[in-house]
Each structure stands twice: as structure tokens, then as C-alpha cells.
Amino acid sequence: MKIPVIRQLFQNSSPEQLEATLEVLEAFCEFRGVNEAEVDVAGELITNICGALEVHAKVNEGALEKDALNVFAQRVMGSIDR
């Protein structure tokens, strides 16, 4: 998870574009010929895209971009600590 990447994706991509990309990456991870390193890279991209989608949702609910980014980062860090 990289907050600057999530911010960039949020600012430059619509939720529809992010969702389409997410579908492609998820399908890519299911291919038999994909190795573990490629799945790791795709997983990092998926996390960043999900973060950008969550930021879009929070901003649409009235949150500030900065606050929405922080909420996502805290949730991810909280799930890692468990």
C-alpha cells in the first residue's frame, strides 16, 4: 500500500476505470501461468486500486481527501496488526 499511489489513482481515475482495472488484475491472478512474484505485484496494485475506490466513496460521502486517505491507511495497518 502506497498512499501517494492511491492519491494519484484517486485524482486521475474514475471509479468506473478503477473497477475495470481491478477486474482485469483479479482475472490475471487466476491464470495458471502466473508466478508468485507476479501475483505479489498484482496484489499490491489491487490494494492501491481498492484504496482509491474507498477514497472516492468517502469523498462522495463528504470526507476530505486527506481524511479519506488516512482512514484507509489506518484500516489496512489495523488489519495487518491482527
Overview of the molecule:
The protein is mainly alpha-helical and 82 residues long. The protein is built from 4 helices and no strands. α1 crosses α3 (36-60) and α2 (15-29) runs antiparallel to α3 (36-60). The two termini are 17 Å apart.
Rounded mean pLDDT score: 92
Globally, the shape reads globular
Poorly predicted sequence stretches spanning 5 or more consecutive residues = none
Main sheet characteristics: none
Give the SSE string: HHHH
Question: How many separate helices?
Answer: 4
How many strand segments? 0
Radius of gyration: 13 Å
The proportion of strand residues reads under 5%
End-to-end distance: 17 Å
Q: Structural class given helices, strands, pairing?
A: mainly alpha
Helix content: over 70%
Write the layout of secondary structure elements.
Layout: H1 3-12, H2 15-29, H3 36-60, H4 65-81
Descriptive keywords:
82 residues; mainly alpha; 4 helices; globular
Task: Give a summary of the structure in a few sentences.
With 82 residues, the chain is mainly α. The chain contains 4 helices and no strands.
